[in-house]
Amino acid sequence: MALLKKAAFTLLSSLLLLSDVQAQSPRGSLRGSVQDVTGARIANATIVAQSSDSSLRREANSEDRGEFRIDDLLPGRYRIVVSAAGFSDAVAEVPVAVSSVREITVTLRPAASAQSVTVKGQSSSITTEPIDVASAVHQGVIGRQDLQNLPLAARSFANIAYLAPGTEPVEPSDPTKARITAVATGGSSGLNNELSVDGGDNSDDFIGGFLQNFSPETIQEFAMRTANEDADTGGTTAGSVVITTRRGSNEWHGDAAFYHRAAALNARFPIENPAPDPKQPFSRQNYVFTLGGPLKSNKVWMFSSFEYVHENASIAYSPAVTAQFNALSSLASSGLIPGATSIDVPQNTPVPFRDYIGSLRFDWAQSVKSQWFLRASTDNYTTHNNLVQQGTLPSTGLLTHNNYLNAVISNSYAFSPSWLGTFVFGASGLHLTQRRNSDLGFALAFPFSATSQTVSGFETYGDNQFITAITAFPDLRNQQKYQFRYDVGHATGDHSFKFGINFIHEPVLGGAFPGNAETLYTFPQDPTYYVANPAQFSVDYAAGAASTPASDGSFSQNVQRLALYAQDSWRVTPHLTFNYGLRYQTTFGLFTASGRSQTENPAYLTLQVLGISLIRGLPHNDRKQFAPRLGLTYALERSGKTVLRAGFGLFYDDLAQGG
């Protein structure tokens, strides 16, 4: 769903921006009215929107009430020319934002008079964005200026998303996504948010939340929506993020940048490195390159970006932790730990991270009516000693390698000035592997390693068990997703009607948990205690053993998702807007895992044998996911300083495998 901003225009050809519901589309809209100097509306005026960066050109006519609307505009600046018989032309530069509507009111003067059109209240940044006076959607639009000028500690678009009202940072519960920053909305976990990039789905269907990361240099702008999404948005019970990527223009332009951070410039992260522990050694360099321009002027454009991240982080152990490690090493040297005759104790553990993020986009103006683009993006990163933390030795770490790929091809076709069709085909993939630093067949867990600061495992020494206090996580993940989406919109001056279909085919959604035999030895006391009481170590060693036999940890699903929707945004008066719609969605194969249905579910079979009727039937695909959406916004005054909003909706989300 998207923000619809509205505000009335002043009498003499002033232009005020507002946003209307543009929903999940990665494009924007222009809406307004044409009048003469007396305020009388002018019908059949011609409105031409010409992109300042390309040959994209759209045209519309004002209706009987002098109102008009142009949908499906790529975000950016447009030269607007308004003309009518007997009047001089009016010209203005107007910015159009992603998932939003710019509203203008143009006052035409008689042909003998000179024309000027001014723009008032224009917002180019999330920091100066005015109150939304026309939509029930809670949203903030983060523009290119924000991405360029505001500091990004982790070079992630999510850092700026926190500026949108109703959001906050949250640590991902799955360690495999530690580099994909989560954004919580309304106090949620951040795993129930939906993400689309250029209209293509980019959500993680295993754990939930965002799937692939994108360099800020790739992003043109994005909308962070925190509540009351329209009917064209599903797969979320919280927020939604709509991203549009940068495209080339008629001028060649390139950028190069270098960013450097070191421990001296780095503040402590109180969760991982609280005082008085020694400050962790750290250095990171980001190398950024972009290039874009015309392959054929006014016809074909390209834009490319590449970012390389060279990071050398580390875990610096505190004196208290080092003392425990030395005691553990002494126990091993004494022959008390079977399978470990010696344990090295480092002063710190390096955590090197290398990331390659690239994107390439081509835009083609096939005709005045038809516009195409193709965009492919990749993210490939490796982390050594992943999940090692204060209180754990390097043997508990992992070598993590993530490969992401996302591609979208899209066409926008104008059947007429008021009817538009948008086609999107998307493909995305993930291949993740995690390899243990050690393969001893066992792990030792002592109390000092598991504290309130622990965000991954609890093993002090030995094999990582791929288990946290929240969830188990896999050492192999694969996801392949293909999306077909088609939306049709009909825009008039006071209505914007839209309907469409969204089908996702996910033939590969699987992976594997470690299948080797493991034994976890959990101790009630720390190693320093056992150095003084070696006999007790052997007793607790035997008592704390928990063995897991070898097994096939693989899992797989073949899932399809289908959604149909229809919605309308009705501008009843300049102060009052109604947004209403209906969505239907369902799934296929969601409860079939590794080729087995829920009739083979061990928990279900056990309950049946014991005669315990805790459930009335088998889990199945829900065929009753009808989701009405209704919202209204009323601006109490023309200035838009006081706005009343109300909304209602039903929202459904899929069951994530690991969420």
Characteristics of this structure?
659 residues, mainly beta, 13-stranded antiparallel sheet, 6 helices, 34 strands, 8% helix
For the biggest β-sheet, the strand order reads 18-19-20-21-22-23-24-27-28-31-32-33-34
Low-pLDDT runs: 1-23, 116-123
What integer value in Å does the Rg equal? 29 Å
Shape: elongated
Largest sheet: 13 strands, antiparallel
Describe the structure in your own words.
The protein has 659 residues and is mostly beta strands. The chain has a domain at 254-558 and 586-627. Helices cover 8% and strands 46% of the residues. The longest helix is centred in the middle third of the chain and has 15 residues, at 319-333.
Strand and helix layout:
Layout: E1 3-5, E2 14-16, E3 28-36, E4 46-51, E5 57-61, E6 67-73, E7 76-83, E8 90-96, E9 100-108, E10 118-120, E11 138-142, H1 144-149, H2 157-161, E12 167-170, E13 182-185, E14 194-197, E15 200-201, E16 219-227, E17 240-245, E18 253-262, E19 283-296, E20 300-316, H3 319-333, E21 348-365, E22 370-386, E23 398-414, E24 419-436, E25 442-445, E26 461-462, E27 476-491, E28 495-512, E29 518-522, H4 527-532, H5 534-543, E30 545-548, E31 554-571, E32 576-588, H6 602-610, E33 625-635, E34 643-649
Parallel strand pairs: 1-9, 2-10, 3-9, 14-17, 25-29
Antiparallel strand pairs: 3-6, 4-5, 4-7, 7-8, 11-16, 12-13, 14-15, 16-17, 18-19, 19-20, 20-21, 21-22, 22-23, 23-24, 24-27, 25-26, 27-28, 28-31, 29-30, 31-32, 32-33, 33-34
